[in-house]
Specification:
With 467 residues, the chain is an alpha/beta fold. Helices cover 28% and strands 25% of the residues. The protein has helices spanning 7-16, 46-53, 57-68, 86-101, 169-187, 203-206, 208-219, 261-270, 277-289, 314-318, 358-377; strands spanning 19-21, 27-29, 108-117, 127-136, 141-151, 193-200, 223-230, 247-251, 297-301, 323-327, 341-342, 348-349, 383-388, 396-401, 408-417, 425-430, 434-437, 444-452, 464-466. An eight-stranded mixed sheet has the order 3-4-6-5-7-10-8-9, sandwiched between helices. Strands 17-14-13-19 form a four-stranded mixed sheet, with no helix packed on it. A hairpin with a 7-residue loop joins strand 13 and strand 14 (396-401). Helix 3 crosses helix 11 and helix 4 (86-101) runs parallel beside helix 5 (169-187).
Length: 467
């Protein structure tokens, strides 16, 4: 095992700015830079780069245009017309996912997940809501699950208008196109853990489809270690015409939606507002997907969602699952939730495919793919991390439960200043479940992550105090 750096070398490096660890385990100063990747960043593997090259903007465009061709996909629209309405879109999505599953060697299955939603706000009568779900079963740790979704329902200005044309190209055929393209590319591969690809319904009426999916997973005791929704990922052009085609926003809550009073008291005592499992998931996305292989910058937003809006990650958060939302960098609201029309000035309204940027959406798909594939191939997030607080000391003792993955080779302890958003130090500690660092737990935040034989790292686990 490499020795822990001494308190003196760590503090010297921290005072100098950002720090990295050399192979000998001593701290080494490095210049601070906003463009410098986090110390925890992982370079894309050859396998991942090959996967990312298969993502096809033309296929994404074809999916968006096909979904738009159904006229409206409103949740309350007709369900038994073969050409128009949400039922026609549902049947086409299932056929597409089944075609991908046919190339998976039996690893992927696709199915409809339906239930009847009783009357509720925006649901005037009992309505069947159907998710279209494909599951790619993991070959090593199938019990560990990651979910990616987009919603295939659409709307116009009046959220109860189920008959007018509601193209929903950006909101959210673009997100569904990302999900389908990921399913197509990954179906031919063999992930270690299970990936669920979901096109959900009922989002515009109240997140009904995603709530049902999340509840079904929760009731089954499913170990969902990460969930991403892609909602409004079709354009890089803002309402003022400015473009930012190489940035994607990732919305991530800090204080967990599912937090109990006891957990809230513990969080306040340690200052863990920026270290929820969802924030660690967001850091992981930056680590593996903000690079030349995706061609994208991941802009992490410390907020659950935008003002006055909500997305399909929220029902997962409410059930205690780490979940986050991808959304384009700046929105044009003339092309969301609008009737298709041209006003007196000649301005076109409506969520039409001509306002989408399909190469941009393909890059968003690559960000998703880099995160999902690395999560599925890497070890799971370490369980039960603890920071020992039984004695007043100027060092820090950490413990965690050992993982069961057959290719697990060890762990790394990470830390950062309490004011830093990113992990700045990484220390390999070998195949152990305890480690002591000669650095005060009162001054910095610590975490633990797992490493496998291929060099892939898990998301960081943030420790709770143990007296």
């Amino acid at each position: 095992m490499r020795p822990s750096p001494t308190r003196r070398t760590v503090l010297t490096a921290t005072a100098a700015g950002a720090a990295a660890l050399t192979a000998t385990g001593t701290a080494e100063a490095a210049p601070a830079s906003a463009d410098r990747p986090p110390a925890t960043a992982q370079r894309p593997s050859r396998e991942l780069r090959a996967l990312l090259r298969e993502i096809d903007a033309a296929r994404i465009e074809a999916t968006v245009r096909r979904l738009v061709s159904f006229g409206t996909r409103h949740t309350l629209s007709v369900q038994d017309d073969p050409d128009r309405g949400i039922g026609a879109a549902r049947d086409w999505l299932l056929a597409e996912l089944n075609s991908y599953a046919a190339a998976s060697g039996g690893r992927m299955t696709a199915a409809l997940q339906s239930y009847v939603q009783e009357p509720a706000p925006r649901i005037p009568t009992p309505t069947k809501i159907t998710n279209v779900v494909a599951t790619l079963r993991g070959s090593v740790t199938p019990e560990r699950v990651y979910v990616v979704s987009g919603h295939y329902d659409s709307r116009v200005t009046d959220v109860m208008d189920a008959t007018s044309d509601a193209p929903g190209a950006d909101d959210d055929a673009s997100g569904v196109a990302v999900v389908l393209e990921l399913a197509r590319v990954m179906a031919k591969r063999r992930p270690a853990s299970t990936i669920v690809f979901a096109a959900v319904a009922g989002e515009e009426q109240g997140l009904f489809g995603s709530a049902y999916l999340a509840q079904q997973l929760k009731a089954a005791g499913t170990d969902v270690q990460g969930m991403f929704t892609n909602d409004i990922v079709g354009s890089a052009t803002a309402d003022d015409g400015t473009r930012d085609p190489y940035t994607i926003r990732l919305f991530t809550e800090g204080v967990p939606s599912s937090e109990t009073p006891e957990q809230a008291a513990l969080r306040r005592s340690v200052g863990g507002e920026n270290d929820s499992a969802t924030r660690q998931l967001a850091r992981f996305v930056r680590d593996v997907a903000d690079n030349d292989a995706t061609g994208m910058r991941v802009r992490v937003i410390y907020r659950r969602d935008r003002y006055l809006r909500g997305g399909d990650h929220i029902p997962f958060l409410e059930r205690g699952y780490p979940a986050a939302r991808f959304t384009e960098p700046a929105e044009d609201f003339a092309h969301q939730h609008q009737n298709v029309r041209v006003d007196d000035t000649g301005k076109q309204y409506g969520d039409l495919p001509e306002f989408c940027d399909f190469p941009f959406t393909a890059r968003v798909a690559r960000v998703n793919a880099a995160a999902l594939w690395t999560l599925a191939q890497a070890p799971g997030t370490p369980r039960n991390p603890r920071i020992i607080t039984s004695n007043l000391t100027n060092s820090t003792s950490l413990t965690w439960a050992g993982g069961t993955e057959p290719d697990l080779v060890g762990y790394e302890v990470v830390w950062r200043e309490t004011t830093s958003p990113e992990w700045t130090h990484v220390l390999p500690v070998g195949d152990a479940t305890t480690h002591e660092v000669d650095l005060s737990k009162d001054n910095v935040f610590f975490g633990v992550r797992a490493v496998n034989r291929s060099g892939l790292r898990s998301p960081v686990a943030f420790p709770s105090p143990q007296s």
